TrEMBL record, chain A:
This is Uncharacterized protein. The keyword Transmembrane helix applies. It comes from Eiseniibacteriota bacterium. It comes from the Bacteria. The chain crosses the membrane at residues 6-23, 30-48, 60-79, 91-109, 129-151, 167-190. Keywords: Membrane, Transmembrane, Transmembrane helix.
Length: 204, 277
């Protein structure tokens, strides 16, 4: 019985969201607002139970003095609301931005920049003509796309031709991304239809 | 009004309706289109096949119900293959809404079909806030990051955690990701620093961003969207929930391609008439 009620509620709300495809209406707006409100409430409660309580509150109650440092930094974040003490919020913001910038910088250099440059140093004489063509296209694609984003020289003559080739590679890339996006949205539609006609109405 | 003008002024709701029925019909009447696994899915499958019984695998599940149709079949198929290989599964999540989805897959597949025991064969560590920081800290001590599992039980005494406390004790990371934090961050923070092999399943939207990681060898396998999940299911068990949806997906794509071609044809004809600038 609880499953039937839950599925019926979910089914009706799904239809309410789908009704936007016909035109904007009050039923759609109700479902939208209900979702936003529920999600916000759920995440506040969830963050309190899984982040604030175990990582800070329980430790403070247990007498962990070190935990007063993050508590003080967290309180300082709220000084943005004080007209005269806004500058105090820069300290915790600085700590967060500094830590994340350090992590991201190293991760990007190690994981993306160096590894991807290495991965594009390819041979065009591998013994397999298919691989040779693939590698050649990859090298040409990377170089011409880089030329397109090089703005210190006017895109005329040879640079212009390479830049134009770069645009074609970018277009192919955007086309592939669009195709994958269509596939993702279609998958979501299939998931909802399977729920409506399978889990809810038991017609599948 | 000629046929070109009629099509130009076609109500978009008619297009929605056509797509709706194109997707719905194959769910009722499957077409049985064949699915051929690509190199990415084959590599994903091979990376898990290379594991030995008793090896420990970290299952990084980073998504939420919004990506359920694409990613849950991947997670279920991965758990199925891991159970067949008799490896230990340690699951964790950096997305708050994911742990219940992991529990559901474990209950259905690990417990329901393979009679695996919680705490002995697998464990769900649950959600941990901290994103890249958590990824790095797991490399120092899993018990330090997750002293208890998603239900609050201490993980120190669980047989599944025996001899496992950092990436050095993990043979493979299986990541199922819907965005940030996800596959990109696992590659940047963990693959490059700890040299541990990673296989990833992701939403179709993010797949093009991750193909270079597969090409460079930073990912040992990659599943992109429902199609990737279906290919992987074919390799694991011959069929599955994603494979069954592929007929609807394919027919939907054909209809969209048809509309794109039709739109371009009319644009081309109008250009010849000189009525399009």
């Amino acid at each position: 019985m609880p499953e039937l009620v839950g599925n019926t509620l979910a089914g009706l709300l799904t239809l309410a969201i789908f009704s936007f495809l016909y035109k904007d209406n009050v039923v759609y707006k109700f479902a939208e607002h209900l979702f936003v409100g529920l999600a916000a409430g759920y995440y506040v409660a969830f963050q309190y139970r899984t982040v604030f309580q175990p990582n800070l509150w329980d430790r403070l109650v247990a007498g962990d003095i070190v935990s007063f440092i993050p508590l003080a930094l967290a309180i300082l974040l709220f000084t943005r609301m004080l007209p005269s003490g806004q500058w105090l919020s820069r300290w915790p913001m600085g700590a967060m931005i500094g830590a994340y910038a350090g992590l991201q910088l190293i991760g990007f250099l190690q994981g993306d920049l160096i590894a991807q440059v290495q991965a594009n140093i390819l041979s065009v004489n591998t013994g397999s003509w298919v691989t040779n063509v693939n590698n050649f296209l990859l090298i040409v694609g990377v170089l011409t796309t880089l030329v397109y984003f090089f703005f210190s020289t006017e895109h005329k003559g040879a640079v212009g031709a390479l830049s134009k080739a770069g645009i074609y590679f970018l277009m192919i890339s955007f086309g592939a991304s669009y195709g994958f996006t269509v596939m993702a949205r279609m998958s979501l539609l299939i998931g909802r239809l399977e729920f409506l006609f399978g889990d809810w109405l038991h017609l599948l | 009004m000629d046929w070109k003008t009629r099509l130009e002024r076609l109500d978009r709701r008619i297009i929605f309706l056509v797509i709706f029925f194109a997707v719905l019909m194959p769910l009722f009447f499957p077409l049985g289109l064949s699915i051929t696994p690509g190199p990415e899915a084959t590599a994903f499958h091979a990376a898990i096949e290379a594991l030995q019984p008793g090896d420990a695998v970290y299952l990084a599940a980073d998504y939420d119900p919004g990506s359920l149709p694409e990613l849950q079949p991947m997670l279920e198929a991965a758990i199925e293959q891991l159970c067949k290989k008799d490896v230990r599964i340690i699951a964790g999540s950096l997305w708050p809404a994911c742990p219940p989805l992991v529990n559901r897959a474990f209950t259905q597949i690990a417990e329901g079909r393979f009679q695996k025991v919680y705490g002995t064969d697998y464990v769900n560590l649950g959600f941990k806030e901290g994103r890249e920081v958590v990824m790095n800290q797991l490399g120092q001590s899993i018990r330090g990051v997750y002293p208890v599992d998603s239900a609050g039980a201490p993980i120190g005494d669980m047989p599944v955690m025996s001899g496992v406390d950092s990436y050095a004790d993990i043979k493979l990371i299986v990541n199922v990701s819907a965005g940030y934090p996800g596959t990109k961050e696992w590659v940047q923070q963990v693959r490059s620093r700890y040299s541990i092999p990673i296989v990833a399943g992701c939403t179709a939207v993010s797949a093009p961003e991750y193909f270079p990681y597969f090409q460079s060898g930073q990912l040992s396998g990659l599943l992109g969207g429902l199609a990737g999940a279906a290919e992987y299911e074919v390799l694991v068990s011959g069929s599955g929930p994603a494979a069954k949806k592929m007929d609807a997906q394919s027919l939907g794509h054909i209809v969209i391609i048809g509309f794109i071609l039709l739109g371009n044809l009319i644009y081309f004809l109008r250009s010849r008439e000189g009525s399009v600038a």
